[in-house]
TrEMBL record, chain A:
UniProt key word DNA repair: yes
A UniProt-annotated Pfam family: RecO_C
Name the record gives this protein: DNA repair protein RecO
Recorded family membership: Belongs to the RecO family.
Gene name for this UniProt entry: recO
Segments forming domain DNA replication/recombination mediator RecO N-terminal: 1-70
Domain of life, source organism: Bacteria
Function: Involved in DNA repair and RecF pathway recombination.
Signal peptide interval: none
UniProt KW keywords: DNA damage, DNA recombination, DNA repair
Automatic annotation (TrEMBL), chain B:
Identification of the protein by name: Recombination protein RecR
Keyword terms of this UniProt record: DNA damage, DNA recombination, DNA repair, Metal-binding, Zinc, Zinc-finger
Annotated ranges, domain Toprim: 84-179
Coiled-coil zones: none
Role description: May play a role in DNA repair. It seems to be involved in an RecBC-independent recombinational process of DNA repair. It may act with RecF and RecO.
Protein family membership: Belongs to the RecR family.
Amino acid sequence: MEWRDEGLIIGTRKHGENAVIVEAMTTRHGRHLGLVRGGRSRRFAALLQPGNTVELNWRARLEDHLGAYTVEAKSLRAAELMQSRDRLSLSQLICEHLRVLPERDPHPRLLAEANAMHDNQADGYSLGCAIAKFEMRLLDELGFGIDAGSCALTGEQSGLSYVSPKTGRAVTAEAAKPYLDKLMRLPHIFGGALDLSEKDELEAAFALTEHFLNMHIWLPRQLSPPSARERLIKTICNGL
Amino acid sequence: MNNQNGGPEIEQLVQLLARLPGLGPRSARRAVLHLIKKKDTLMVPLATALDRAVDTVVTCAQCGNVDTKSPCNICSDTRRIESGLLIVVEDVADLWALERAGANKSLYHVLGGTLSPLDGVGPEDLNINTLVDRVEKGDVREVVLAVNATVDGQTTAHYVTDRLESFEVKITRLAHGVPVGGELDYLDEGTLTQALNARTDF
């Protein structure tokens, strides 16, 4: 078995004295692990850092095997990421989010967004929007996305303003009135009609994604929310 | 098939030595054979040294270094204490490397690893609270973050910086750039950019 693909390195683990098991998010083969022999050498040290995009050649006797990677540099961002606390936190958050995806299941749109966020120097509101949309896409691709197509009560397709924390279905402001204390706000970036300030918009978006990530991914797998998430969101929201 | 060439004592020795870094079963067997051949000049002194080390080696309660007393020799050195310089390293091996370099006579603090979400290593697993306590006492003027230039290392450095933010202490880190003997052609773009940004007068 052999293939060649481009991948974003999302984690590495030491294996034995010289080798490293690399976890990469590839375009056509999804989250895929492989052994890099001599991966702990100086030659590979700068290459095998989370956040770098590399060209991977995977080879194994059977498809089920871990297999071995040969790696070539494509876009080495790690050194640049290390210069900024926020960019490093962003990269870690993206990598931790990508790690919850099932192995060997391709998610090219998520990967494209992850690469774009790594490359863009956006900050403030636009960075917050990108992270929130990425988290919502992650939920979508895992089958836990919200349903903001039509109102769960009236069937209306416009004026959707709130979301049920239980079902993830959206409702209009009018239909939501009796249940307001139990519903979550649906911000513009997820197709909502509420008129919110940039800060409120982001806070609502992150509250929504956090709730559903917690309910469907972190709690069932006994995972804690990514350590970088809270700090990064706080930095972004406080800066608005 | 029985692969034993000697008694169970020899086999146990081979198995124990094979667990050491850099040694496999074959090289462990060679080492054991060598020890047996040089029993009086090597094996007995080695056994005595190991026995003494087991009894005397302790981890320094202040810095995390290994020595035969706690506080260790480095922490007890008054010249180092007076320097007010505290170098934070990931591991004892890093401390030894810096001591080998002999560039600075300073105190050290061994974190015992780096923050790593993938391996489940959080702040409570590292010696960060003891570092904060040391800085809080007020004898430290400058903290040098000598952690590895890896994503995990730098994440740890940023976390430590956050924890020390409230104290009046200068926080610095090691420079990143071209290593001695490094050829520019083989360096990654990020390191080259950093080296160029941190250029010095010549």
